[in-house]
Amino acid sequence: MAATSALPCAARGEELKPQQLEPQELKPYTVVGDGIPASLTGAPGEASLGRALVVERSSTCILCHSGPFPETKFQGDLAPSLAGSGNRWSPSQLRLRLVDASRLNPATIMPAFYRVDGLGRVGRAWRDKPILSAEQIEDIVAYLAELRD
Q: In 1-72, at which residue ranges do the beta strands (DSSP E only) sit?
């Protein structure tokens, strides 16, 4: 199933602040089984940028997940550790979990980072905007796929 619409999202490598979001089109994607096999951008992400996004406390992974981030205090404990995520999930599976984890588990508390329709309890600053851009999704996928231990 493909999803498309026009929305604002953060530019690659920038801190995620809703008031700075620029209009961009949501890139189309196709879910196959339990993943999204094709890159949202047509290119692999940059793992170093993905790591920076993962540990960004204001908006992403570290709020709920822990992992191999010794410099980061107060890691989340609501969700599984990200350590070894590259052994547990393929890039395709990681991509779908970031885009819209509710496709796999309708009761998940994980936000849909690249979806805007059909969501409830969305803060005013984030309405009609994805949390992450396609490039940022690919950067995080690249980083998480490298986590093998």
A: 5-9, 22-26
